[in-house]
Write a structure and sequence with these properties.
heterodimer; A: alpha/beta; Peroxisomal Thiolase, Chain A, domain 1; five-stranded mixed sheet; 18% strand; B: alpha/beta; eleven-stranded mixed sheet; two-stranded antiparallel ribbon
Chain lengths: 387, 359
């Protein structure tokens, strides 16, 4: 697993921030904007890959990929002989959204084609494969805020279908002026550090980062003598088919997605130790999601949202939160759901207010998205797995 | 597991629907439309015909949708209707995968225009929400009440190929009974400028796929095509899905009855297509009907599916440069067991889709 986001450039740094219940939202420095909204920037981050042509999302992705490969005891040379997939979710890295390009076009009727060429050669999954020097099955998922989680589910399906031995899967996004303006226009930007599930929540803060998992077939792992401590046991996806920007009022799609993940994993709801919720801090998301979680698992399940530490990283969120879910299982503790203070009586769950030791094998990470997409990933410790 | 193409919907320069597609294939090459850019430059294009996106039966659902979303909804709805599924269908068992090379660029540029014109704090939330890459999929899903998994893949190369692979997996794994799979790309004022800057237009307005040119000419096109994939056939099935390749290797199939080369001028060098002319008993290229589209495979797959269903090989519309290459030069009924579609990536990789006769 590899992760880079505001709480840390690595999973170790992230865990330290989580353990200290420390978050560092701040003023935007990456680009100019008149909007005075706190953001979760990745600071101290040095671009390390000249290939990436200055595309920050790709830089963040490669950073997380490098950590994920090391965590899986793999190096890039070992990928050459395997059937590899690269499946990544993103939002802004998939768009022709270069403001300088458009400003020039609008003003003069002409503009440099460099941003267009960057787009043509910079497709996230293709670019990662090219950087690693591998021939890979590559897909870039643009399912809005569930993109990273969907990419992980696709990676698992590729392995199940025998198409790949290894898949680098997850999500990445950089802070960008378009979604910052857009979420503000939708009235979803919070003017202070976000407070997911809190009674007085006022919306989301944007963040950036990348979260990547190395998914590997059991046969390939066994052949190289590697025994992973975590496994993706289940996944599910379902669409609300309801509204472009609002979730279904009864959480129809989310409920179906979680049930699919449980069924695929053959895990009972009472075996789930915690849910790492999408928990954006917006009124509707947290209301719907909290009620679905309570209905499926009961109101006393451990629940947290890590967006209080990272902000909403859009296409990266599903990847990052899958990594955080795996880390919590591996470490045996959960950080407090930072930002949550006062119970909303309409939401029957109570997110963690304190650090919590946990025992058990399975956890779920949920992702909800524009367009009514809902995705659930069920991760678990392999220790205790029936042989 | 076998997957069947049981429904087809298409909106392109050829018009809307399979009847329009058939008519266009029978009519052969038609000259492009010439538009005048703001600097008076003339650009040949293959746009959707006027009225192609007017449909009152879907009007309420898509009245706020942008043009790209309408293209997706219309083609997807037509594919679903075409498949003649029972009305009591379990909508939770229908998946959707929408692909595009460039996504919602026109609406994204509209949003950038709002930022520049009105400032970051005064942009339209509606324009923003429509600029998100999965807005088209959201419209398709809500209009057709598709409650299964819904994905959008935005990728310059082979997005449709990967979508078919994934759809087949969803069917094989029992996750879905049916999957709508399609792709679309649109033109627009900024895209016209980009095409004018990056592509070379032919002097006579004609695409020449068999020139295998090192500096090919292109005529930008737009369109949308969707297929309903199912694990069981129906009497009107178009085709079976054969093998799909996007990484180096070759499809280990029998020689295709027809090999469609997707050369359309979007590569800087199309000479690599010449290396493919040893695979197949006859060749065709239908890009001259649709225009040049990096993500144009769904449209050409639509032509292939229609040919397999009707067991008719439609004449390739432009034969210039083919010399002795065995082309499908005249439209005629013929037994057609398989069609292979090949599109080259700028890195030399071939994306290939094999479609087989349905029965």
């Amino acid at each position: 697993m590899g992760a880079v986001s505001a709480p840390g450039l690595t999973t170790a740094e992230t865990l330290a921030s989580f353990r200290a219940a420390r978050r560092q939202p701040g003023k935007l420095t990456l680009f100019e904007s008149p909007l005075d909204l706190p953001v979760f920037e990745v600071t101290r981050f040095e671009a390390a890959h000249p290939y990436s042509d200055g595309v920050r999302t790709l830089e963040l992705t490669l950073h997380a990929v490098r950590e994920a490969l090391a965590d899986a005891a793999l190096d890039a040379s070992m990928l050459v002989s395997a059937r590899v997939g690269v499946c990544l979710g993103t939002t802004v890295a998939s768009q022709l959204n270069d403001l300088a390009f458009y400003r020039s076009y609008k003003a003069t009727g002409s503009a440099s084609m460099d941003p267009v060429r960057r787009y043509l050669k910079g497709n996230l999954a293709d670019a990662v494969a090219a950087h690693l020097g591998i021939q890979a099955l590559t897909v870039t998922v643009t399912n809005a805020c569930s993109s990273g989680a969907d990419a992980i589910a696709i990676g698992a399906q590729w392995i199940d279908a025998g198409l790949c031995d290894l898949v680098l899967a997850g999500g990445a996004d950089e802070l960008n002026r378009v979604p910052l303006s857009g979420f503000h226009a939708l009235g979803l930007g919070c003017p202070f550090p976000c407070t997911p599930f809190d009674k007085h929540r006022q919306g989301l803060n944007l963040g950036e980062g990348a979260g990547v998992l190395v998914l590997e077939s059991p046969a390939h792992a066994a052949a190289r003598g590697y025994a992973p401590d975590l496994s993706l046991y289940g996944h599910g996806a379902a669409c609300d088919a309801h509204h472009l920007t609002a979730p279904h009022p009864e959480g129809r799609g989310l409920r179906a997605a979680v049930c699919q993940a449980l069924a695929l994993a053959r895990v009972r709801p009472e075996e789930i130790v915690f849910v790492n919720a999408h928990g954006t801090g917006t009124q509707e998301n947290d209301l719907i999601e909290g009620n679905v979680i309570a209905a499926l698992f009961g109101p006393s399940l451990h629940v947290l949202s890590t967006k209080g530490y990272t902000g909403h990283t859009l296409g990266a969120a599903g990847g990052l939160e899958a990594v955080f879910t795996g880390l919590a299982l591996r470490e045996g503790w959960l950080p407090p759901s930072i930002g949550f203070s006062e119970q909303d009586e309409r939401i029957p769950i109570t997110p963690l207010r304190e650090h919590m030791e946990i025992h058990g094998r399975f956890a779920i990470s949920t992702s909800l998205a524009f367009g009514g997409n809902n995705t659930a990933l069920l991760l678990g410790l392999t220790k205790g797995e029936a042989q | 597991m076998t997957s069947f193409l049981n429904g087809l919907g298409i909106v392109a320069a050829t018009g809307r629907g399979t009847d329009s597609l058939r008519s266009a294939l029978l009519s052969g090459w038609q000259p492009p439309v010439t538009i005048t850019l703001p600097d008076d430059h003339k650009l040949p294009v293959y746009p959707l015909p006027p009225g192609a996106l007017e449909d009152k039966s879907l009007g309420r659902n898509v009245r706020r949708a942008d043009r790209l979303s309408k293209m997706a909804v219309f083609a997807a709805a037509d594919a679903l209707i075409d498949a003649q599924l029972p009305p009591d269908l379990d909508r939770r068992r229908i998946g959707l995968i929408v692909t595009s090379a460039f996504g919602s660029h026109a609406t994204t540029f509209q949003f950038l225009d709002e930022i520049l014109t009105y400032g970051d704090a005064a942009v339209s939330p509606t324009v923003f929400s429509h600029s998100v890459q999965n807005a088209a999929a959201a419209y398709v899903a809500s209009t057709l009440d598709l409650q299964g998994p819904v994905l959008t893949l935005t990728q310059v190369h082979f997005a449709f190929h990967h979508a078919l692979l994934l759809a087949r997996q969803w069917l094989a794994a029992g996750q879905c009974d049916h999957v709508l799979v399609g792709g679309m790309d649109e033109l627009g004022s900024v895209m016209h400028f980009i095409c004018r800057s990056l592509l070379r237009a032919p002097m006579d307005g004609k695409l020449r796929p068999f020139a295998f040119a090192k500096d090919p000419a292109a005529i930008p096109g737009e369109g949308s095509a969707f297929f309903l994939l199912s694990s069981t056939p129906r009497p009107g099935s178009y085709a079976r899905l054969g093998q799909i390749m996007t990484t180096p290797g070759s499809i280990p199939a029998t020689t295709p009855g027809l090999h469609i080369l997707e050369a359309d001028g979007t590569l800087t060098d199309e000479s690599g297509y010449a290396n493919l002319t040893t695979v197949g008993t006859q060749f065709a290229a239908y890009a001259p009907l649709f225009g040049s589209m990096t993500g144009g495979t769904p449209l050409q797959a639509g032509a292939a599916a229609l040919m397999l269903k009707e067991q008719v090989c439609f004449a390739t519309p432009v034969t210039d440069g083919a010399n002795a290459l065995p082309l499908c030069r005249a439209t005629a009924p013929q037994p057609l067991a398989s069609v292979l579609l090949t599109r080259l990536h700028c890195n030399g990789t071939a994306g290939q889709i094999q479609l087989l006769a349905p029965f």
